[in-house]
Design brief:
The complex is a heterotrimer of chains A (about 120), B (about 325) and C (about 190). With about 120 residues, chain A is mainly α. Chain A is built from three helices and no strands. Chain A has a domain of about 55 residues. Chain C contains seven helices and no strands. The longest helix of chain C has 25 residues. Classes of the chains: A mainly alpha (about 120), B mainly alpha (about 325), C mainly alpha (about 190).
Chain lengths: ~120, ~325, ~190
């Protein structure tokens, strides 16, 4: 008995090696002819101007923060969902308080207009 | 032969079977999509190679193998090369907890199954950003940013709709959820119709399908974060994408439609039939609706789906208690 | 037992190498990706300890959500290279280590501390008894749920208040009154 984690490791290794195997296999079947125009970053035929690493708008970051907060919230909800039937009303009221507080946060974000894109 | 060696070989056989399925499924789904989209647009679609063009995709796969692997000069070579690998591995890992019959799970039936699925698929974001950063191209980076924003926005309502099912079944194990539906004699799509619809919208958005494909909106971003990839590397990314689409449909079938449950036919066949039915609905939506804008995409999730899915969760909980 | 030691050694090596690269990479994007490697490897250690719930949450929250914040924070900055020494990119591990030692690289400090910890852990692993059989003593999700909602009720509710504070903090920091934060970037 190797346990489930060895099985999982086999899946992981297979998932990592299969793409590599394919790329290597296909590289054996053909030759590459790179030249400067071909390996240029693709911009619909135009010569690229400047670097791709530009500064992005801050709203992406706000959405990322909101995402973390709600993601952590859902992590708390998983165990709750499993024991809800067992603990009954008590667990329900607790979670309504929990979700309620987070909805306040979402409402605040909405009122502050950070959920607006343009 | 010692027992552990037999166990080990059995796992290797299982992985090989799953990979074989992934390959066949990829080819079949691309063919299906091309045929269906052609029918919807009053075209014929592929019809030259084999009956109804069924061998077209085999020809395409062979062609893909022989395509040149263009390595962009501006790219960050290691990150760029690793991105398809990081995107493919989670797509394969998802299969680990999927049940295909009454006592058959592909890997192991983890008691944190749903959480495992969410964790594995959340790693896709890193793969997408590796592609965006590694390519060092403007289209790629913009595509990655959009994909990231979409993934983040739709992950929460997605998880909340899955939680509704976990609550109904009282377990996070995927097999346990299917078993609960079989035992109780009704599918969770009936008490969880709102959750089902939210789940469906969210997976389509996360996969960049349907009206939500602005990640690779070809008129503005060429192919999004896939722009700088060619040949087999791009093939791997596409394969990961189609595999994710299939597993998303299969998970929907398991959580809401009873998974392997059904009369006469063997369990795995029922699962595949249900999954493909949902895949075809996704294709139907994709080829019917026009693309949304990024602000509409984010508004739909943060201002509508998130509050609605939270409320739905609470309402179902009230009914349960 | 031997398999476990090998697995632990591999994970420890990954964590150590990853954390060294997090502080030593000249490109901040590489740092972020190595951090993801470290976080996933830590989840592997949790798995070895049979803390399945913790391992999955580690991947979900850290490799998923926290990485997302780090990625988007990096996209906010114009400069993605630290130090601006392009030759550093092509250095081998040994050369990097030597350079880091010569320049009294402060980032090496946490890596050294981690190495010390790992040595202690490896030394300690032989002294521990055989770990519990898989599944025997592991806590299920239901146990976690019961504990959260009964014994640890107050911390649980405080967690939601902390999360609320995090939302408000993020909004206050990024969207100041009067000024429109959304024109901060070009795209």
């Amino acid at each position: 008995m190797l346990g489930p984690w060895v099985d999982l490791l086999v899946f992981l290794i297979a998932g990592l090696t299969f793409p590599v195997l394919n790329v290597v296999l296909s590289s054996l079947l053909r030759r590459d002819y790179p030249y400067p125009e071909k390996v240029m970053p693709y911009e619909s035929g135009e010569d690229p101007v400047g670097d791709a690493r530009v500064r992005f708008r801050v709203s992406y970051y706000v959405f990322a923060m909101l995402f973390v907060v709600f993601d952590v919230e859902t992590v708390f909800l998983y165990p709750w969902a499993v024991v809800l039937r067992e603990l009954g009303l008590f667990a329900l009221i607790e979670i309504i308080v929990f979700i309620g507080l987070l909805l306040v946060g979402l409402y605040y974000a909405y009122k502050k207009k950070v959920l607006r894109w343009v | 032969m010692p027992g552990w060696l037999i166990d080990f070989l059995w796992v290797v056989v299982k992985v090989t079977l799953v990979i074989a399925f992934v390959g066949v499924n990829f080819i079949f789904m691309v063919w299906l999509e091309r045929k269906l989209s052609a029918k919807m647009q009053a075209r014929i679609g592929p019809n030259r190679v084999g009956p109804h063009g069924s061998l077209q995709l085999i020809a395409d796969a062979l062609k893909l193998f022989s395509k040149e692997d263009i390595k962009p000069a501006m790219a960050d070579p290691k990150v760029w090369a690793l991105a398809p690998v990081v995107m493919f591995a989670p797509a394969l890992l998802v299969f680990y907890v999927l049940p295909v019959g009454p006592n058959a799970v592909i890997g192991t039936d983890l008691n944190v199954g749903l959480l495992y699925l969410a964790a594995v698929s959340s790693f896709t974001l890193v793969g997408i950003f590796m592609a965006g950063w590694g390519s060092n191209s403007k289209y790629s980076l913009l595509g990655a940013m959009r994909a990231g924003a979409a993934l983040m926005a739709y992950e929460i309502p997605l998880v909340l709709s899955i939680l509704t099912v976990a609550m109904l079944a009282g377990t996070l194990s995927v097999q346990g959820i299917v078993q609960a539906q079989v035992d109780r004699g009704y599918y969770f799509v009936f008490p969880g119709i709102v959750a089902f619809i939210i789940y469906f919208i969210c997976v389509m958005a996360e996969l960049g399908r349907g009206p939500f494909d602005l990640v690779e909106a070809e008129h503005e971003l060429v192919m999004g974060y896939q722009t700088e990839y060619s040949g087999m590397r791009w093939g791997i990314m596409l394969m990961a994408e189609y595999t994710n689409q299939f597993t998303a449909a299969a998970i929907a079938a398991m959580l809401f439609l009873g998974g392997w449950d059904g009369p006469f036919l063997p369990g795995w066949l029922w699962l595949v039939i249900k999954a493909y039915a949902l895949v075809m609905v996704m294709m139907w939506v994709r080829w019917t609706l026009p693309r949304v804008r990024i602000d509409q995409l984010l508004d739909l999730s943060w201002k509508f789906l998130l509050p609605v899915s939270l409320l739905n969760l609470v309402v179902v909980a009230i009914f349960l208690v | 037992m031997s398999l476990q030691v090998v697995a632990f050694a591999v994970l420890a090596a990954l964590i150590l190498y990853g954390s060294y690269k997090v502080v030593a990479s000249p490109l901040i994007t590489h740092s972020a990706l190595f951090l993801a490697l470290v976080l996933v490897s830590v989840a592997g250690v949790f798995l070895m300890l049979d803390a399945v719930f913790l391992a999955v949450v580690q991947v979900l929250v850290y490799a998923g959500a926290v990485m997302a914040v780090i990625i988007f924070a990096i996209m906010l900055s114009e400069q993605r290279e630290i130090g601006g020494d392009p030759s550093a990119q092509r250095m081998g591990f040994g050369e990097e280590l030597r350079r880091a030692l010569r320049s009294r690289h402060w980032g090496l400090l946490p890596a050294a501390a981690a190495a010390l910890l790992a040595v202690l852990a490896i030394a300690g692993i032989g002294r521990l008894g055989a770990p519990a059989a898989p599944g025997a003593a592991s806590t299920s999700v239901a146990d976690v749920g019961r504990a959260l909602l009964t014994d640890y009720l107050v911390p649980f509710e405080i967690a939601s208040a902390v999360l609320l504070a995090a939302v408000i903090g993020a909004i206050v920091l990024t969207a100041r009154e009067g000024s429109d934060a959304r024109d901060g970037g070009r795209s």
